[in-house]
Amino acid sequence: MKNIKNRMLLKLCFLVSISILLFTSCSNDSENSSGKLEVTGISKSVVDDPLVDGDREVDVPTEIINAGNYYIIRGSGFATLKSISFNGLESYFNPTMVTDNTIVVLVDQKTPYYNEMDEMKIVTSKGTLNYTVAVRPPNPNIKGFPINPNPGDIITITGEYFLRPVVNFGTTTVEPIESSLTEIKVKVPEDIKYKYLSITNVSGTTVANQAFGSAIYDDAPTNIWGWEEKWDATNTFDLAYTKDFSQGSKCIEWKSGEWDAYIIALAFWNFTDTDKFKAVRFSVKGLKAGKAKLFINGEPNNNFKVVEFKSDSWTYIEVPFSDLGNPNVLSKIGWQEFGGFGGNTILLDDIGLVLK
To answer: How much is the pTM?
Structure first.
């Protein structure tokens, strides 16, 4: 399970390469429609269960459309494609991925699927085709859950598309106590430390980014958090800011002066497993788009990396230990305001470590 992130990245790269291959193989097709408008088959670009190694398949014929995925539509009469929609909602297509016989399309994640007409509509300059195909929800979207729970805790997992969910803590399946399309309540089983949460619905499986027990801040300081240090005591902090967040329901709001810093020291009496991790992770957002210097062990001029963030959306960042001097001991994590324009209000969330 520790290689989930790498495999998901490889999957994305693989999908891009498949799209390029499709474009290359079809580039000699006529640009003008040479046949009637019809669909002869639909394939899913990539089928890959993130919990199973070596099961990836490419260009797999299907009779079901799962929103949020790439599909290859085959037939004829597509050369002058104007739009393609599923259950009434248009989906994005790249014109360079369309020939007279092939459409590569990313089905919009917001495509309606409940009590709908199960219809794909293809509109070209020469006509319109309504084609019946089952449309189902995307894979689950996990938005938040307690990352450092204790066995026996009743926790709530929030997200989307929890349709008939199967919940796993590592390889342990847990029956939901309650569930809706956006929330699942479960009892935490034994032996979950450094394992991953995964949820499977009728369309597929999603694995959470964070391993259990890896959070330093998760709506509040965790058992890994020891104490905090501030370069300027006039900076103000809200450790339970609820107006915005990237994971869970709260984040840290830091009103920083120019070049000021905020440091979290790790609690060594509770946390001695630094060697099991390979990177620092956090999400960041600013009142103004800016920069911050991440540094470790109280050494802002030696073990650091400058990162950029936005003001209109959260930026998820992982900084490998290899970028921070490969420390033998990790005792402190700090951020220095680095925008160069007089200070900023910075939001920090989902602070933790990434498993090897």
So the answer is: 0.80
